[in-house]
Amino acid sequence: MLKTPLCDVFGIDLPVLLAPMGTCTSAELVAAVCNAGGLGGIGTLFRATAAIKRDIDTVRTLTNAPFAINHIPQTLDAEAFHYTLEARPAVISFTLATRATNWCAKRTMRERA
Fold it and tell me: What's the total number of domains in the chain?
């Protein structure tokens, strides 16, 4: 079996990542990748907060393995971000971020700690 440092960092068995591409993935696919030993990622672009929360809950129900959540800061609302922090995924990533949105995310994470 192929094992790389990436596996150790994320606590996965295989160096396989499911790209978190908004409406192109599902919670079931994320969980399937995680259960197969890779790192599945929930994408949030063009998703309502209720849908994001539902996906997080579904993934947590279907797997105990590490997973990721990716946000687009320009479209991210506080409720979805706080729910993400409470879920404590192995990875929280941001796409299309700017310096200002990075600052906001860091500040929010410090306040929640």
Answer: 1
